Amino acid sequence: MSGYKLFYFPGRGGAEKCRLAFAAAKIDYEDVRVPSEEWPKEKASGRPPLGQMPFIVTPEGKTLAQSGTIMKYICKKGGLSPADVFDEAIADMISDGVTDLFPPLIKMHFEKDETKKEELKKEFFGTTLPARLEKFEALLKNRNEGKDFFLGEKLTYADIIFFDFCNSFLSKGEKTVPEQLEKFPPLVQLYNRVLSVPEINEWVNKRPKTEM
């Protein structure tokens, strides 16, 4: 029986939080990077459950798609999910709160009109992102004054998805703390706390360097 296989394009993108989860959970997997020109054939095979990537194939041959779902599944298998039902709901709320930030980012990225793009950047980085970071900071400080992870002493998928957003999309994959966090010291500490998890740090150091 083979191990897990994670299928995605040759980049961080939507699969990176799954890779970080695999690393933190200490679960071995094969990181299958499908070139764009090979994707139509893979899609036509019917193996991707929703006809998109990322998706995983489990050791039993089962398939699962949607990056957030995969990440949570891995974390649950690896003991990185909150044990309390309400805490799990808080982790889901934070995860969904991070996911909310992607549509304006994507819209900004693909905007061709430079004037409009600058307006979108100003709105996102000047209003949307700081407002959401303020809420994340408050949630973090609810537990031990922000000196631990979002849900306490234990790393969960809420921390992983927050770190991935900051690292992949704000710091462009570099280990440096994104400048957007500088006004929120507890979030800076959280970013460094997640990066200091040995397995996550090892993965970030050795992963392929890609633009996105």
From TrEMBL:
Residues 84-212 form the GST C-terminal domain. Residues 2-82 form the GST N-terminal domain. It comes from the Eukaryota. It holds the Pfam family GST_C_3. SUPFAM superfamilies: GST C-terminal domain-like, Thioredoxin-like. PANTHER family: GLUTATHIONE S-TRANSFERASE (PTHR11571). This is Glutathione S-transferase. It comes from Porites lobata. The lineage of its organism: Eukaryota, Metazoa, Cnidaria, Anthozoa, Hexacorallia.
